[in-house]
Design a protein that fits this description.
Distance between the termini: 39 Å
CATH superfamily: Outer membrane efflux proteins (OEP)
Order of helices and strands: EEHHEEHHHHEEHH
Number of domains: 1
Radius of gyration: 36 Å
CATH class: Mainly Alpha
Mean pLDDT: 86
Largest sheet: 4 strands, antiparallel
Strand content: 5-15%
Helix content: 55-70%
Length: 454
């Protein structure tokens, strides 16, 4: 099963100043050709997993979240900053050009009262060891990693919006169930009170029925609070003011066939957080190389052209112009160990990033395996809970007839109603949890979805 192998990260060779031994090489890890928990049969992977739920409101909500979520705005700004840093890291490969000008007023006794000067200086450091290029490559890879972070953040926001929408729908269904339970308890209390008036029920039966009604009313307030808070959570994810004024769907959607999850190898090459970790691994390697090469001599070329005259118009005349061209070779001799410490620091960071990449990959694989296995188990749970609901409904109907005929007790009636309410509540929760797991699967395999602007 583990015949297929994949190097989880590219080999990163960072050599020491006096040798060529690799400092950090990412380990190899064997991957199966398919997921261990993958079902025997599965449907095609939907091109847009959000629309696959069949809820017309979801697409618009996800697009709204992608456009307005404040957390995504932070990630986009970080991407812009990373791209600017990448441009700055590559700038030293080109010459720097500076212009200067000045005007000086002197004592007239010493000659001309005014002196004007202007000049241009061009400085270029030859990248003979590739140190500057390594820094530029590190910056570029860091920017690409930030772009992968944005893709992952958009996927996370989409999944969060969908899950919170389902949570809001569940909260509405649970609140409606609690309302029906209150109504049922109130009708049962009326029946008990009428029986008490006729002398066929005890006062303790009346008080027991009243207690059951009060408990049901207290449970309703909890459901109402949960629904309001979930609505505000969804509005926050959408970038709206959290006033709670958002209406949930009337029903939870029915799940279709499990989509094909792909292969572990495809996951490693596609999932944004794994891609970002791989890019940062490469960036760390180039940064370590640049720090090592900072110990080598550097060659700098410097050219100057300028003039000085008593009149601005004469500054650039050929008679007053002076040009110079110089080359300098400098080698660091003593910096208090700062350069070697930086070399060691960046090398250690490269090793840490290699381990972080492996950790991220294993986490991604674990999440997919968990979601695949849970899909089957949660489906079985929902099916069993449906059976429990049907049996509880039949039992309540039987107990109600027995109580009406004087055979059953008030405790049996209250217990049967409680069991029915609990069974339906647990079925709603089981269906929502299965939906959440399906969302988690799409998030884990980095499934495609239609985002705003695409």
């Amino acid at each position: 099963m583990f015949r297929h192998s994949l190097i989880l990260s590219t080999a990163l060779f960072v050599t020491a100043c006096a040798g060529t031994a690799p400092l950090s090489v990412a380990p190899e890890m064997e991957l199966p050709g398919t997921y261990v928990s993958a079902p025997d049969t599965s449907g095609p992977q939907h091109p847009d997993w959000v629309s696959a739920f069949g809820d017309d409101a979801l697409g618009g909500l996800v697009n709204e979240g992608i456009s307005a979520n404040p957390g995504l705005a932070i990630v986009r700004a970080n991407l812009d900053a990373a791209r600017a840093s990448a441009r700055a890291a590559g700038a030293p490969r080109l010459p720097s050009v500076d212009a200067s000008t000045s005007a000086t007023v002197r004592d007239i006794a010493v000659g001309s009262p005014e002196v004007y000067s202007a000049g241009i200086e061009v400085v270029w450091q030859a990248d003979i060891w590739g140190r500057i290029s390594d820094g530029a490559r590190a910056g570029t890879l860091s920017a690409e990693a930030a772009a992968a972070d944005l893709a992952g953040a958009e996927l996370t926001v989409a999944a969060n919006v969908v899950s919170t929408w389902f949570a809001l729908t569940e909260a509405r269904l649970q609140r409606e169930l609690a309302e029906r339970d209150v109504e049922t308890r109130a009708r049962q209390l009326e029946i008990v009170e009428r029986r008490f008036v006729r002398g066929v029920a005890r006062s303790s039966d009346v008080r027991t029925a009243r207690s059951a009604l009060a408990s049901s009313q207290a449970a309703l307030t909890v459901r109402e609070r949960t629904e309001a808070q979930t609505a505000r959570n969804l509005q926050t994810a959408l970038g709206r003011y959290p006033d709670g004024a958002i209406e949930a769907a009337r029903l939870l959607p029915e799940l279709g066939e499990l989509p094909a999850p792909g292969t572990p190898e495809q996951l490693i090459s596609r999932r944004p957080d794994v891609v970002a970790a791989e890019l940062r691994l490469g960036a760390a390697g180039f940064s370590a190389e640049a720090a090592r090469k900072a110990l080598y001599p550097s060659l700098t070329l410097r050219g100057n052209a300028g003039g000085q005259a008593a009149s601005p118009s004469d500054v650039f005349s050929s008679a007053n112009m002076v040009e110079s061209l110089a080359a300098s070779l400098a080698a660091p001799l003593f910096r208090g160990g700062a350069l070697r410490a930086e070399r060691d620091r960046t090398a250690a960071l490269a090793r840490a990033q290699a381990a972080r990449y492996v950790e991220t990959s294993l986490t991604a694989l674990r999440e997919v395996e968990n979601a695949l296995q849970s899909d089957v188990l949660l489906a079985n749970r929902a099916s069993a809970q449906q059976t429990a609901l049907e049996e509880a409904a039949a039992a309540l109907e039987l107990v109600e007839r027995q109580y009406a005929s004087g055979v059953g007790t008030i405790f049996e009636l209250i217990d049967a109603q409680t069991r029915l309410t609990q069974a339906e509540s647990q079925l709603i929760s089981a269906r929502r949890e299965r939906l959440d797991n399906r969302v988690a699967l799409h998030l884990a395999i980095a499934g495609p979805f239609a985002a705003a602007g695409e």
